[in-house]
Amino acid sequence: MTTTEVYSQGYRPLHPSDVHDLQIMIIRVGVELLLYGVQTALSVAALSVLMHRKDRTRLTVVVVAGLFLSSTISVAVDSTFLLIRFAASYRHTTRDYSETLDHLNMALSVAFRSNYFISDVVVVSRAWIMWSNSPTAKATLIVCICGSAVGVFVECVWTLKLDFDMFGYFAFPIHRLMMIVPLLFTNVVSTAL
Fold first, then answer.
1. How far, CA to CA in Å, does 28 sit from each of 42, 88, 176?
2. What gap in Å lies between CA 187 and CA 144, rounded to an integer?
3. Stated pTM of the model
4. Range of the domain at 27
5. CB atoms < 10 A from the CB of 178, how many?
6. What is the pLDDT of residues 31-46, one digit of tens each?
7. Which residues cross the membrane (predicted)?
8. N or C: which end of the chain has fewer CB within 10 A?
9. What is the pLDDT of residue 42?
10. Which residue ranges of the chain lie beneath pLDDT 70?
11. 7 in any annotated domain
């Protein structure tokens, strides 16, 4: 879109509720970037320590790098998603952003949920190492991680089928429990062992 097209559409001031939505979006992106900075520092430190250890496992390095990559994708896609969605919702444009927003929403949903699942895998792997001689504990951990995988997958598919408003992440639909309960149960069981 050229500058002439933008100005030819006329000036449309934002309503106070639009300004409020924009403020929420800015705060949300700011908090995400702040926490991403903390995670970046911790990930770099962890990878540095892991690379200098002689007894490191490749799985640990891959998991830390995977969590960092997933978080990077989440922050980048979420910021882009919010900006495009705001521009599409509050400006008169001739371009249709719905397909772009659908693809960004899909990438964001998968990146967020993969972070949750990978984190659970880390917790389960620690409990697995501590209880390597107990078949009962291993069976329990396998059931828990399978339940988490199914819960995350089903909730992700269900989320992608629903149509959210601009700030739908603040809502708490009941279907989110399909992901939260198995993840929480896995964490509680892994920690209790």
1. 21, 18, 20
2. 9
3. 0.71
4. 14-192
5. 18
6. 999 999 999 999 999 8
7. 33-52, 59-84, 141-160, 166-189
8. N
9. 93
10. 1-12, 56, 90-95, 162-173
11. no
